[in-house]
Each structure stands twice: as structure tokens, then as C-alpha cells.
Amino acid sequence: MKPSSSYLLAVFAVALLQGVFEAANAQESGPNRGVQYQPVTPDVKDGVPEKFGQAASQPDGADGTGNPVLGRERHPLYRLAKSDVIVVTFAFAPEFNQTVTVQPDGYITLKDAGHLLVEGSTSMELEQAIQLAYAKILHEPQVTVALKDFDRPYFIASGEVSRPGKYELRGSTSLVAAVAIAGGFTQQSKHSQVVLFRRVSADVVESHVIDVRQMLKRHNLDEDMYLQPGDYVFVPRSLISNIMRFMPATNLGMYSSSSRF
């Protein structure tokens, strides 16, 4: 005799409630409910807990320290440079509000507080430094720093482009896009050997030679590099253009097309 559907449903409900009841009893009551009874703790050496592996890594914070495993800042904060203009505001001492400019030596001059080296500092670091400088004449000064003017990221394009010059670097800009921003190639350009110069340090500059002609011909921009602030794009003159500079005008009919070079 087949059991009825109501009987099967009742058996299933009893089994489900029993599983839920057992799972609830397996947990502790109180604020630590559901937490492992013996949590894993780092080893303690000389009273100081030791860090271990990635589990001890701190997440991204407002200071822009980023992922320490990668060894670099994930979201780097802006650091002050020469000629930056800074607005300093005091919450309870408006008579000390001032606008200062980072001098060529990296210092700023504060009203009644002297000189302060700020080049390479973030805004938060500068606020702390100014608070410390004014703590001698003010009681617990509260300072806010705002960046009014600064040297915006840029790239330089020169050589055989229609409009050589210095351009502001906005967002993600590739080499091909940078050439287009500079007006594109001239008829004398050798766009099979476009050179990208990038400063690695104060004494080292790396260069990359990119065949833009082949990339555009194949309709494939996988090798197109993205620019970084301060990059220098140089488009050389083609060989035939250099030769033509010294040819008589009557022989110019021999020239066919510079795109082959």
C-alpha cells in the first residue's frame, strides 16, 4: 500500500526541523554565537604578536598604502610638489587662515610659524605637520588643508606630429591616442618607429620603440602602451623625407610614397 502524499510531507517536515534544531544547539549563545570556539591567534614573541602571511595584511585604507603583497600603493595619494598652491584653514582661529605656495626648495612659509618642508608629503601629513607647528601658539589647533592649484599630469609629443607640445594627461591615454591628440602624423613621419621615453628615476630613462604602422595595418592595438605622467612621445622623420630635404626641386617627381618607409 502506497503512503499518501500527506504522510510523506509530514516525514520530510520532521526531518527538516530536527536538522535545524541540531544546528542551533551546535552554536554558542551570546555575542560569539557561530564563532569558532578556539579562534586562531598569531604566535606571540616577546609580548608582541607576530604577523603571518597574507592573513595579517591590512586592507586598503584611506592612507593609500594598498596591498603590501604587491609591494606598491594600490591607490596612491597625491604628494605635494614645487609650485603647488595650498589653502590652510583653521577651524577656531580664522586669523591664521592663509594661502601658501610650495617654493622651489620644497618649503612653505607659515604665518607666525616659520618654514616647513612639505615637498613629497600628502595632504593628511601636511595637516599633522601644521598642527604640530602651531601647537606652540594655539591650543589644539584644528587645521584643514586644500589643494588649490597643482602641476597636473602631462605628456609631451614632438617630432613629426602636426601639433607638437605639452598636453594634459586625462584618464587612460594610449600612445596612439596621444599622437591623435597632437594632431596625428605628418607626411614626413616614420610611424613604424615611434619612440616612447619614460623616466624611471632621476638618472635612468627607458625607451620603447613601437611600430604604430603595423598595429594600425593589422587593426590590432594589443601592443599599444598606456602613457604615464611625464612620458615623452617622439615621432622621427622618415628616411626618404631626410633625403628629399637635400634634393633639387626638379627631381621631386621621382618620389612616390613615404608610407613605404
Q: Would you identify the CATH architecture of the domain at 154-244?
A: Roll
H-E order: HEEEEEEHEEEHEEHEH
Number of helices: 5
Q: Sum up the overall morphology in one term.
A: elongated
Name the strands of the widest sheet in spatial order: 9-8-12-10-11
Rounded to an integer in angstroms, the radius of gyration calculated over CA atoms is 33 Å
**CATH class assignment of the domain at 154-244:** Alpha Beta
Structural class: alpha+beta
Strand content: 15-25%
- What is the mean predicted local confidence, pLDDT? 77
Let me know the CATH homologous superfamily of the domain at 154-244. Outer membrane lipoprotein wza domain like
Largest sheet: 5 strands, mixed
Q: What would the CATH topology of the domain at 154-244 be?
A: Outer membrane lipoprotein wza fold like
Distance between the termini: 92 Å
Low-confidence residue ranges = 26-42, 48-64, 67-72, 255-261
- Helicity level: 10-25%
Number of strands: 12
Describe this structure in words.
With 261 residues, this protein is an alpha+beta fold. The relative contact order is 0.09. Residues 26-42, 48-64, 67-72 and 255-261 have low confidence and may be disordered. Helix content is 20%, strand content 21%. Among the domains are: 85-149, wza like domain (wza like fold, 2-Layer Sandwich), CATH 3.30.1950.10; 154-244, Outer membrane lipoprotein wza fold like (Roll), CATH 3.10.560. Strand 8 (154-159) and strand 9 form a beta hairpin.
